[in-house]
Amino acid sequence: MGLDDEVEAKIDQVKGKLKEEVGKRGADPSLEAEGRKDRARGKVKEAWEETKDALEKGKEALKNR
Fold first, then answer.
1. Which DSSP string corresponds to the chain?
2. What is the pLDDT of residue 4?
3. How many domains is the chain built from?
4. How far is CA 12 from CA 5, 19, 29, in A?
5. What is the pLDDT of residue 1?
6. N or C: less crowded end of the chain, CB within 10 Å?
């Protein structure tokens, strides 16, 4: 996973968690929902990057056979 992509995914997750907590404590359901969405986006980005890395490693392993 590229460092920039990894950092971006983690930032989305942290930003989402923060919004979610502020929304819960401030009784703001829309902010809480936005936080859940941001966290999910970060997790999806992270999973996509891990999948791309795994495919690249598999491709390299097949080349080296």
1. --HHHHHHHHHHHHHHHHHHHHHHHTT-HHHHHHHHHHHHHHHHHHHHHHHHHHHHHHHHHHHT-
2. 87
3. 1
4. 11, 10, 19
5. 55
6. C
